[in-house]
Amino acid sequence: MKKAFLFFGLFLSVFAFAAGGAFAQKDPQMPVDPILEADAKHNLEVAQNYFKLKKAYRAVLLRFEETFAAYPDFSKMDEFLYIAGMSSYYLADNKGQQKLLPTATEDDKKKYDPAKLREDAKMYLTMVVEKYPNSKFRNDAEKTLKALGKDK
Known about the structure:
Strand content: under 5%
Shape: globular
Radius of gyration: 21 Å
CATH class: Mainly Alpha
CATH superfamily: Tetratricopeptide repeat domain
Number of strands: 0
Helix content: over 70%
Largest sheet: none
CATH topology: Serine Threonine Protein Phosphatase 5, Tetratricopeptide repeat
């Protein structure tokens, strides 16, 4: 009986290890989730509107953070990373229509601190350059990263 339990425990351990490895790997042939893709596309379109027309960079960052957390494999993540990086860059220089109010919470003050915004911009733009080498946003991201390097 002990051998049966020992064998069963060993079997479960091996199965859990094999299954865990299978779940951890992403299948490149795996189809895109149409619901998540559509939701992410909507968030990108709204963020593009905020970015280009309204200069509402804080709103861009909120849309980006929501999308990145829920669906980091979005097919247009390079563009989203780029506009999030540029929004952070512009906010660090106090540009845009959404200013930080004196009544802002401590969390907002930390989140929108110029030094943190510059670091976020570097992180997002570096991701564009490194993870999406064929992106049409790569050259602009590199130019802004050079400018950020000089801003230290």
